[in-house]
Amino acid sequence: MRYVVLGAGAVGGGVGGLLHRAGLPITLVARGSHLAALRADGLRLRVGREPERTWPVPAVGAPSEVDWTDDTVVLLAVKSQQTAAALADLLPHLPPEVPLVSLQNGVSNERTLLRHVEHVHAITVMMPASHLEPGLVTIHSAGTPALLDIGRYPDGLDDVDHAVAADLRAAGMASEPRADIMAWKHRKLLMNLGNAVDAACVPGEDAATLVDRLRLEGERVLAEARIAVTSAADDQDRRGELLRPLVDRDAVGSSSWQSVSRRTGDVETDHLNGEIVLLGRLHGVPTPANELVRRTLNDLVRRRGRPRTVSAAELLRRLDDATETHEGPATSR
Ligand SMILES: NC(=O)C1=CN([C@@H]2O[C@H](COP(=O)(O)OP(=O)(O)OC[C@H]3O[C@@H](n4cnc5c(N)ncnc54)[C@H](OP(=O)(O)O)[C@@H]3O)[C@@H](O)[C@H]2O)C=CC1
Ligand SMILES: CC(C)(CO)C(=O)C(=O)O
């Protein structure tokens, strides 16, 4: 199996670097100053407590430059808001039988991919990683570097799932094929509802309370929509302490925090909090907290604000005021 990783940042660069390190044939598709650094010096990869090493991973600037073969698998690792543009670059060059694997958070990408490609697979990405300067990717777990279970979208398993999982394991990551992979990705979605608060808000108790509200809304919406979600207990069992301990993580936030810090000009919240808002609208469940946080983070990005500068207490106040306006003061209820 050959791999093409489209989007060579924290996750794509990290997984691609580990596959390359294990001797598997892989090409990174990157762009801008990151591509220039990869071509000039190679991929600088930090894994847990290991010393940084530089790997000469083949890197190209576009799917048109890939030497495509039928035994290739594409790992898509751009942020969800970048998927449509990445697909537009990819599709004219992609052989029809080549499977596309979403190595992304959220649950919106797979459906988008299936519109264009017959063989779509999903990975639940548990991999605390960062990419904050061109050429450099850091994997923060000093335990197992990543936990990447895989299955076919919308469900089921085939030989590709088994082969990719085996290659990921050969490269030191944890990966099992799972026929119900989207149930696992919906559980992960609930966790990622907190990314926007991590990116936008001053950390503290109020931020934690706000994240709880986002997740409560998310749980309600997914239940009302009758979407299968892996239980929190099963998710916890699967993770255990695999991705621990974390190193050099304190100064680095979630993937959404990284987008704001790098001033990429876009952020994934419409596909994380926005997924809950969308489902809420479809199923008649109010989702004011996810909507407020989604709007707040998009606004921060638009005005090129700094991460972690919005008051979570103020957002909670606005949510409570809106509830009182709709339902009357708490005393009269
Ligand atoms: N970082 C983490 O710890 C984790 C991230 N995830 C998920 O993984 C996915 C990827 O996130 P992450 O790795 O953090 O994101 P990054 O921004 O670090 O990496 C994405 C990379 O793709 C590049 N890119 C975007 N569009 C294209 C294109 N058309 N052609 C070539 N390159 C392109 C970006 O370039 P540019 O910088 O120029 O935009 C960037 O280098 C997301 O869904 C995220 O939620 C999941 C678990 C953990
Ligand atoms: C779980 C977490 C926070 C790991 O870094 C993540 O998925 C992300 O950063 O998007």
Automatic annotation (TrEMBL):
* EC number(s) recorded for this UniProt protein: 1.1.1.169
Q: Which residues form the Ketopantoate reductase C-terminal domain?
A: 180-298
Database matches in Pfam families: ApbA, ApbA_C
Note whether Oxidoreductase occurs among the keywords: yes
Q: Does the keyword S-adenosyl-L-methionine apply?
A: no
Look up the record and name the pathway of this protein: Cofactor biosynthesis; (R)-pantothenate biosynthesis; (R)-pantoate from 3-methyl-2-oxobutanoate: step 2/2
Q: Which UniProt keywords apply?
A: NADP, Oxidoreductase, Pantothenate biosynthesis
InterPro entries given for it?
A: 6-PGluconate_DH-like_C_sf, 6PGD_dom2, ApbA, Ketopantoate_reductase, KPA_reductase, KPR_N, NAD(P)-bd_dom_sf
Domain (Ketopantoate reductase N-terminal): residue spans on this chain: 4-143
Catalytic function, reaction form: (R)-pantoate + NADP(+) = 2-dehydropantoate + NADPH + H(+)
Say which enzyme class the record assigns: oxidoreductase
User: What protein family is recorded?
Assistant: Belongs to the ketopantoate reductase family.
What the protein does? Catalyzes the NADPH-dependent reduction of ketopantoate into pantoic acid.
**What is this protein called in UniProt?**
2-dehydropantoate 2-reductase
Organism taxonomic ancestry: Bacteria, Bacillati, Actinomycetota, Actinomycetes, Propionibacteriales
